[in-house]
UniProtKB/TrEMBL annotation:
SMART domains: PH. One of its GO terms (molecular function) is DNA binding. Its main location: membrane. PANTHER family: SWAP-70 RECOMBINASE (PTHR14383), SWITCH-ASSOCIATED PROTEIN 70 (PTHR14383:SF6). Residues 207-303 form the PH domain. GO terms for cellular component: cytoplasm; lamellipodium; nucleus; plasma membrane. Keywords: Cell membrane, Cell projection, Coiled coil, Cytoplasm, DNA-binding, Membrane, Nucleus, Phosphoprotein. Residues 568-577 have a biased composition (Basic and acidic residues). It comes from Cyclopterus lumpus (Lumpsucker). The SWAP complex consists of NPM1, NCL, PARP1 and SWAP70. CDD domains: PH_SWAP-70 (cd13273). The gene is swap70b. This is Switch-associated protein 70. The lineage of its organism: Eukaryota, Metazoa, Chordata, Craniata, Vertebrata. The keyword Phosphoprotein applies. Residues 566-586 are annotated as: Disordered.
Length: 586
């Protein structure tokens, strides 16, 4: 909780003390007095005009706490950080006059003020301010430990039962009355009770984690002086005495500070060294237990500063509140589930009642239905007997028809099997014909290649012949030399003629292969015609796939040609163009 939130709780007590008729509102004149007192404590000038300006739109009557809080934050608390003890003391003075009954109290007014501050620290963050039983138990345990007594769990459980039957929490004045009446401090004198309240106040409100008399070595004169040390989360203050009347100095703590034990020296025992940012302090305590406690407490403060965590009691309070909020949420969820289950149970009970009525009606209807069934059973038996005889007769007829259909089905299946065998044989014949056509195509390609080579050789021979004629028409002086060349060319021509004869022999071989393939093709065609005739005899159930018709085939001097008339004309045209070009070149 921020410091401002704690101060607002103190102001809330002062505000409610001015609310005499318990209406939740206070007149502006009283608020002016309250604001003036707050400014006096904070030592800032009070501006009454600001209050009038702030509430100029609300002239109908007194102001509620919700309306006063924004003014308080803006015009007073934002100007300066107040001194918490003086601020609380002023609010306590205003509120205690009206609400505190001192006739039954065993404690002083100062102790009541400290319990009031502890109440503000432990109370919930909602108005009106109250403290729950868990925080009451925490405070009473702390107080009992501070007084050196033992905690009696049964006594508090009895009190909690009485408290639960009336209410779930206490106000500040009820808590002061509970502690001041000595209900939980029986057998303890008033001085011990006052010291216990002061110790708890020092820890929870003043953030004093540890305090006591210890010896400190001076920095200038190097003498040892006994001082009252007070450890807080971010500093160590030391005074002349425990009445805190004269403060001698502060040791500021941060994350870089450290503490380490020292060896005994100069007649002093139980020494340890506090290393602050700018100075180091040598400390001596009375025994090893206190030495360990002080070192551990200082190391705890430094560790909290490094981690940026608050004081242990403040962190524990936050955890307790988070746990209460979590338990409250779980309780609300449980209550919601219980209500849902109860609603579901009621719905189920209603559904069961409806089902019971429906079952009774169904039983009545079933009895009536049984009577009608028995009445109609006799009629149905006679009808079933007649239908059974008729069914037997029909069944016999159906068996005869099934037997006849079975015979026809066997014949049909046999016929389908014969057609399938015929179809497979036909497919084999078509495959033979397809392979024959492929072989014919191979032979045609070979014949075309041979003819192309023959045409190439003829062109070469024509070129040789033309060159010979050009050689004869040249001058007589070159005749002998040309004659030699002619002889060489004639030899080349003879070699070419031999190659041509060899090509002719290869063409004759290809022609024989072609005739063989044609023979196979004719056999395959005859075989196909035979299967066509067989298929036609089976009522035309299948239709054969026949090869397409061929065009008119060209017949040459060496037999059937491997190309069409158009291809032949194209080749003759190219050969004639080549011959003309050679003639023009001469």
């Amino acid at each position: 909780m921020a410091l401002r939130d704690e101060l607002l709780k103190s102001i809330w007590h002062a505000f409610t003390s001015l609310d005499l008729d318990k209406s939740g509102k206070v007149s502006k004149s009283q608020l002016k007095v309250l604001s003036h007192n707050l400014c006096t404590v904070m030592k800032i000038p009070h501006d009454p005009v600001a209050l009038e300006e702030h509430f100029k739109d609300d002239d109908e009557g007194p102001v509620s706490t919700q309306g006063y809080m924004p003014y308080l934050n803006k015009f007073i608390l934002d100007k300066k950080q107040p001194d918490s003890p003086d601020f609380n003391r002023m609010c306590w003075t205003l509120s205690s006059r009206k609400n505190l009954d001192r006739s039954q109290l065993l404690i002083s007014n100062d102790d009541a003020f400290k319990i009031w501050c502890i109440f503000n620290f432990l109370s919930e963050d909602r108005y009106p301010l109250t403290v729950v039983t868990e925080e009451i138990e925490y405070f009473l345990r702390k107080l009992t430990e501070a007084m050196g007594g033992s905690w009696v769990e049964e006594r508090f459980e009895d009190y909690k039962m009485q408290l639960t039957s009336k209410q779930q929490s206490l106000t500040a004045w009820a808590l002061i009355g509970l502690v001041g009446s000595g209900h939980f401090s029986k057998g303890v004198d008033r001085q011990a009770l006052s010291m216990g309240i002061n110790e708890v106040y020092q820890e929870l409100i003043m953030d004093v984690l540890k305090q006591g008399y210890i010896l400190k070595k001076g920095h200038k004169r190097k003498n040892w002086t006994e001082r009252w040390f007070m450890l807080k989360p971010n500093s160590i203050s030391y005074y002349v005495g425990e009445d805190l009347a004269e403060k001698k100095g502060d040791i500021l703590l941060d994350g870089s500070c450290g503490v380490e034990p020292l060896q005994d020296k100069e007649g002093k025992k139980c020494l340890f060294l506090i290393k602050a940012s700018h100075k180091s302090f040598e400390i001596s305590v009375s025994d090893k237990k206190k030495k360990h406690e002080w070192i551990l407490a200082i190391q705890t403060c430094v560790s909290l500063l490094r981690q940026g965590r608050p004081a242990p009691h403040r962190e524990a309070r936050l955890k307790r509140r988070e746990l209460r909020l979590k338990q409250q949420a779980e309780q609300e969820e449980l209550e919601l589930r219980m209500s849902e289950l109860q609603s579901a149970n009621e719905a189920k009970q209603l559904e069961l009642e409806n089902m019971r009525q429906a079952l009774e009606e169904a039983a009545t209807d079933a009895a009536e239905e049984e009577r009608r069934r028995l009445q109609t059973q006799t009629e149905l038996q006679d009808r079933y007997r007649t239908d059974l005889e008729r069914e037997q007769m029909v069944r016999k007829q159906m068996e005869e028809q099934v037997a006849q259909k079975s015979t026809e089905l066997e014949q049909y299946l046999q016929r389908v099997q014969e057609l399938e065998d015929m179809y497979r044989q036909l497919e084999d014949a078509l495959d033979d014909e397809k392979r024959a056509r492929q072989e014919e195509e191979v032979v045609r390609r070979l014949q075309a290649r041979l003819l192309e080579e023959e045409s190439t050789k003829r062109v070469e021979l024509e070129e040789v012949h033309l060159r010979q004629q050009r050689a004869i028409s040249e001058t007589e002086a070159e005749k002998q030399e040309l004659e030699k060349e002619r002889l060489a060319k004639e030899n080349a021509l003879q070699a070419a003629m031999k190659q041509l004869e060899q090509l002719e022999e290869e063409r004759q071989g290809a022609l024989e292969q072609y005739q063989t393939v044609m023979k196979k093709l004719e056999d395959a065609a005859n075989n196909t015609k035979t299967w066509k005739h067989k298929v036609a005899e089976h009522e035309g159930m299948l239709r054969l796939i026949q090869p397409g018709s061929k065009g008119q085939q060209l017949i040459t001097n060496w037999g059937p040609a491997a190309f069409s008339d158009a291809e032949l004309s194209s080749r003759q045209k190219k050969w004639q163009e080549t011959k003309n070009q050679a003639t023009q070149a001469q």
